[in-house]
Every structure is written in C-alpha cells, then in structure tokens.
Amino acid sequence: MKLWGGRFERAPSELFERFSESLSFDRRLLEADIRGSQAWARALERAGILTVAERETLVRALEEIAAEARQPGFFDGAADEDVHTLVIRKLREKAGELAGKMHTGRSRNEQVSLDTRLWLRQEIGHHQNRLAALMGSLLALARRYPDAILPGFTHLRRAQAVLWPHYLLAYFEMFFRDWQRLAAARRAAGAMPLGSGALAGSGLPIDRAQIARELGFDELTRNSMDAASDRDFALDFLHAACLAMLHLSRLAEDWILYSSEEFGWLELADEVTSGSSLMPQKKNPDALELVRGKCGRVLGSYVSLVATLKGLPMTYNRDMQEDKERLFDASDTLGACLEMTRAVADSARLNPERTAEAARQSWVVATDLAEALARSGVPFERAHTLVGRLVLESLRSGRRPADWTPEALAAFAPEFAPEMARLLRPEEGLKTREIPGGTGPAAVAAALDEAARRLRELGT
Ligand code: ARG
C-alpha cells in the first residue's frame, strides 16, 4: 500500500522500493506513531472532520494495532514504505475506508518528526536512569575504600597522590554533566510539530496546544518550515550520547590499565572478563575494551548525521530518513555501555595496598614538600628547585621518599624544617588539600555526601 499514487502512471520499481523503504528500521517508531495518530484523530474530531463515533472507531483500532505489534511476527511479510504507511494499512484492515480520513491535513514530514521526538524523549529518560544508576555504583565503589590512596597521573606519569573516592568522584562529575546534557536534549525534543503540515502549516483548524498536552510535550514548534526541516534535537541527543560515551571510554581505559598485571590495582570480576582460546592464564578486560571501542561508533553516528544534514535545502528532504538508524544505533550502544560499565563497577575490587605502594614508590610527595617550603616562606621557585634536587639525588642514590630522615633532609638543605619530613608520606600530603574540590580527606568526605545528595535530587 502507498499513501500516494494518483499522479503516477506507473508503479515504483522494485529496486527503488527496496532502496528507499524505511520500515525495516523505523518500525521502532510504531508505538510513537500510534500515540501520535490517536492524538491526531482527536484533533480531527475537534476540527469537525471526524464524528465522535468515527474518532472512537479509529482510536480503538489504533489501540488494537499497538497490542498486535507487541506479538511476535507482526511485521512478517510487511512490505510497506515506512511505519506510517504500515499503520494506515492496518487501520484500513480494521476500520475500512474511514482510515482514509486519518491523513487529513497531516503530512508524514511532521509525523516522522513527532514520532522521532516521542521515541527519543522516552529513550533519553531510560538513559538518564542508567546514568544515575552508574553514578550510584561509583559512589558505592568509592565508599568501599574510603581511605585508599593512589597516584594520580598527568601524562600517564605519577603526579600527586589522591584518595580513591576523589578519583571516582571525577567520573561522577562527568556523568552528572552527561545527565544534565541529556535533560537538555530531552527538552530540545520537547516541541510538538503536528499542525505544521508538509511545510506551510495545516489548512485545518487544529488545536495544536491540546495535542501537545495529550502527548506530554512542553511547547509547540514555532515555525512550520523549521518543524519540517529541523533535526537539531537528534544532533543534541547524539552530542550528549557522544560525550557520555567519551567519558565511559576514558573510564574503561583507566580500568583496563589499572587491572593489568603491571598495575595490579583493580581486580575485575570473572563475570565481566573473558579468557583466551590459546593462552590458559589470560583474563582479559573485553567488556571495558568494547565500551572503549563502541565510543567510536557513537561518535561516527554523530558525524554521519551532521554530514547528512549539512547544506540541505529547506525544508524536508528524504536524506533526513538517514537520521533514524544513527539515532537507534547510538541509543542502543549508549544504553548497553552504561549497563555494562555499571556491572563492571559493581563487581570490581580495589587492591589498596598496591595503589598505596605505587604512591610510596614514586615522588608523588614532591609537590607537598615544595608547598610546605613555600608556606614556611621560601619562594616557590627556590622550593621547586630544592625539591627537584632532592628527587635527583634520590634517583641517583636509589632512595625512596620514606628513606629520608628529618635529619638527612635538613642536612640536604637547611630550608627543610624537621616537621616537613612527615610529608614524605603521601597520606600526609593529602591532608594539606582540604580546599573545596581538593583531595583532602574532609573535603572528599563532604564531596561524597554532596554528590549523594545531588544524585538523590535527580529523582530517578
Ligand atoms: N520515512 C520517511 C523518513 O523517515 C518518512 C517521511 C517521508 N516523507 C516524504 N515526504 N517522503 O523521513
């Protein structure tokens, strides 16, 4: 069945039909298409196009289609151009010629925009819940090792000691921003396009505001041409999805490293790792590697859709059909990666002895010492040089920070006061970083509580 055909003398070729169909993927919009169509039927009744009885028949028949679509095999053998066409065909099977009134004043251009927005708003809600669950898991993993310290890196070189919860809270902040970005993307998809017609606005007295209320939209699209051509809301979502994937991939990379034999900081659970078909000893971090890898895929979807939309003339163009597979794939991938990462976090175990040892072995305390000198009045440049020399001397003589006694330190340079030797232990330097946002134990405890409060306030 087609929703058009009168002006054609010959049918489309099979080649073209196969090339242009979207039912194979836009079937995922069926539920949204039915909700939108039911709202449209009610709008047509209010506009005097349908009688009460006709509207009831159509709304009921659409409800039956929605129920049937939940059964397996519903789409078997369907050869419709797209999901909108399929719904009308099914409606005709149930309601006869009356189905022919459904498209009064309605274009598929606004319909596909409406359906995609409805679908996307629901998907985004699920992603926000998954993100909140992951944030909760990170807080729990932080609280399991409240005093564990590890070397924080810059340039992947040991830089300064930080508390384990402080490290995890960094990811909490990233995911918190992702949650907010998704909320903004959900708002961006929250304008209701029906009534825009194909591009010029409907010629029927449609109460758009009432449709928006029924479908849970926040506002109306303000310009019918913009409504027909706009896919910014799809890009907003893909952008938010990209950044969430970016953060997931960085977390994955960290934990792939930290769980390696070279580090030995983190133990990943058997349930989320896999072995080698050849090497019996292997325990590989495949779950995290896939999360890292799938980031590229979501980024690809974003770039693909931007490239598709770039330079399109006003208003709707069939190119825009290409948005759906990108959206579906990005959304599925993000959802799967959020759930997988959460499972990894829930089952991971830290080895706090190893992380503390990694901190003690290196000169992560150097900055603590330099700042102590600065606090005692030594110009920072001089302090920096002094500690740098201390590090150089230690490397030459094979000494670790803990090997320096207060006396040896004072003998090395008189600026080193005896009490500064305390700072040769990384856990002591931490205590000087109680500034808000710093890794001092009290600051981190407060940050953990504050993060938990913010998570609760997300209300998911
Ligand atoms: N399958 C189309 C899409 O996804 C639906 C809109 C078709 N509109 C049209 N004028 N051909 O974009």
Q: Would you summarize the structure shown here?
A:
It contains 18 helices and six strands. By secondary structure, it is mainly alpha-helical. The strands form three sheets. Strands 1-2 form a two-stranded antiparallel ribbon. A two-stranded parallel sheet has the order 3-4.
Give descriptors for this structure.
460 residues; mainly alpha; Fumarase C, Chain B, domain 1; Ribonucleotide Reductase Protein R1, domain 1; two-stranded parallel ribbon; binds arginine
Give an account of the 3D structure.
The chain is built from 18 helices and six strands. Helices cover 61% and strands 5% of the residues. The protein has a two-stranded antiparallel sheet. It has three domains: 88 residues, Fumarase/aspartase (N-terminal domain) (Fumarase C, Chain B, domain 1, Orthogonal Bundle); 208 residues, Fumarase C, Chain A, domain 2 (Up-down Bundle), CATH 1.20.200; 100 residues, Fumarase/aspartase (C-terminal domain) (Ribonucleotide Reductase Protein R1, domain 1, Orthogonal Bundle), CATH 1.10.40.30. The protein is elongated, with a radius of gyration of 30 Å. Helix 3 runs antiparallel to helix 4, helix 3 packs antiparallel against helix 8 and helix 4 crosses helix 5. It binds arginine (ARG). Arginine binds next to helix 6.
